[in-house]
Each structure stands twice: as C-alpha cells, then as structure tokens.
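We emphasize that the prediction below concerns an isolated chain of 383 residues; any contacts that depend on oligomerization or on bound cofactors are therefore not represented. The input was used exactly as deposited, without trimming of termini.
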Amino acid sequence: MVSSIILFVTSTTGFLCTAFIFGKNKEYQYSLINRFLVIIIAITSARFFFYGISRAYPGSDMNRSLELIEASTTMLMPCFFLYFQNIVYENKFKLGNWLHFIVPILLGSIVLSSNFINSEYRSPNRPLFIFIAFAFYLAYAVISFVMLYRNVWNRKTDIKSIQKQNDIIKNWSKFLYGAFIALLLTRMTLIFSDTFIRYNYDHLWVPALIWMGVFIKIFLTPEILYGYNFLNKPIETGIEKVILSNVWVTENTLLPTSSEKDRKLEEKIKPLVNDHIHRIEKYSFHTHAFRDPDLGLEDIADALSIPMSHLNYIFKYHCNESFTDYKKIVRIHDATQLLKERYLDKHKLESLSSEVGFLSYNTFHLAFKNITGLTANEYAKRF
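Result of the prediction step, given as a token string:
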C-alpha cells in the first residue's frame, strides 16, 4: 500500500513538473534544452503511474501497457545524454539525434514482439538481453561524464555574473548525473539480484524517491532548465524591470558605503537605483553606443543626463561587474545578435570584433568564449 502511494505521488509530481516546464517555455520562449527533459519526465511519470495502478488493483489486466512502458524506459539513456549535450551546446534538434534511439527501439521491439519477458521472467535469452542493455546504459553514463567533466564542471570565467550561472548549471548537472547513476545502479542491482518478477516491482519505490528529489529540485530552482541562457533570452527593456538580473543588485548595496561622500550619495540615489539601471540597460541594448571602442562612463552620463557621481556609485555599489566587464557583456550580446542575422555570410570574424567595439580580435575571442561558452563560429552554426 505504501509503495503504491509513493508511486502515485511521484507520478503526479512528475506530471505537474511537465506542465510547469511547458508553462516556463511559454512564458520565456527562449528555452533550447527542455524537450529531452520533458521526454524523460513524461516516460518516468507514466511508468510510475501505471505500476501504481497495477499494484493498487492487482486484478487489472495491464500487462501489455506495462510492457510498452517498460520497453520505453530504454529511451531514457540517450535522452539524458542529449539533455546534457544541449546544456553544453544548446543545439536545436538534428536528424542525427535519432541515431541515439536505434538501440532502444530494437530492444523495445524484442520485448514487445515476443514473449521475451514471460511470467517467470526466465527467458533463455535474458542474460544476453541484460548484458546488451547494461552495456548500452554504461556507455551513455561514461560519455555523459566525459562531456560534462570537460565542458560544464570545469567551465570558468573571470566575469562574476557568468561564473554564477556556470556554478548553477554545474551543480544542477552534477545533481542530475548523480541521480542518473543512482537510478542505473538501482535498476541493475534489482535485475542482477533477481528480486523482482514481471510487473511486481516491490522495490520500485526506491527509484521513485530518487525521481521525487529531481522533480522537487526543478520546482525549487527553475532557472536550471535553460542552460547557459545569459545572452539567449530576449533583451526587452520596454518595461520597467532589470534585465541582467545577475549583473545588478537593486535591493541593497554590494558592500557598505566606504566614505561620508558615498553615504550622502546613497540617500539621494536609493530611490533612483532602478530607474538609473533601467536607463543604462536601455541605452546599452537599444542603441549602438557601445560599438564605440572609446566609450566611457562620461559619455553615458552625458547621453542619459545622469550625474557622473551617480553612475560611479551605481557601478561601484550596485553592479557585480566592473564597467570594463559590463562593456564586454553588452558588446558580446551585440555580436550574438549580428550572428543571428547571419553577419558572417558577408563578413569575417575580425570584422565582427571591430564592429561591436573591440580593439583586437583576441580580446573579442576570449570575451565571447568566456560569456557564451562557445567560440563565435560555434555560436553561428546554430543559425
């Protein structure tokens, strides 16, 4: 009875999690990586739901449905890998991705087209089938680890806002990969120890609890859904809100005011912080002012009619980045927009770097890699 309750609660949480992800997609419209996570959650939730029904109502004839659900679980391994891959590269789905599902389809076909899993779960071909499945699972565990270790877990940058995002994705991918390994070990342990019989998974509540932790994590920290989205989301400054929320601190100051002059400025600027930041962002993203390589704070102060002392205070106490790094962020965003417009069809990368305000290509290359995690060429291939 307790096992059935755990299965039902987990499946319900999973279905709600799927709806939550779709809601976030609709709200922000810039997610590139959720499709595989949705498939993973949907298959898992359906599995727990149908097994919960079969345990709660032992007389129900659900064998065929459970066969189909169980066969579909082999799809989870390539989905995990493709999800991790999209965290790194944020690619759109390619036809080549279907190749990852050939083995799961073949294994599922074997299960569904024969009596491979009989009532005693004792087919003569069972050891070979288990060996193939285990090798398949293990291969995806290894290639996922190598890819994450090289491209996510050791990803670093000097720009604080970007590193904060890197750390969020690193911790999430470690958490999800850990759950992935725990589920794999649990599944193989149950198979090799032969503790369950067909459709009577007495220990299915163990992976259900692991999945419950994953679902709760997604609800509590939805920012993990979108990968390295720092410059992927649309820059809309037509409404009064802070766009680069990782860059700015609006509620408090980053550090205590260090002088009497700054304390007096704080009293004047505090009611104007949001307005100043919004105007700075609007000037940054709705004009091409930052393409001027000599742009300084004085130029922004003149253009926005904001006292120079106010701007110095804003960048000192309310900005996580130096003005130099803030300029890099704005210019790299400009470069990503030009790449989306296929700038490289008619121009070279060196031209792009100077177009957006960098004095040298090397500086542009390092800044682009630090902020987006990709080279400009790799980024352009998305489009």
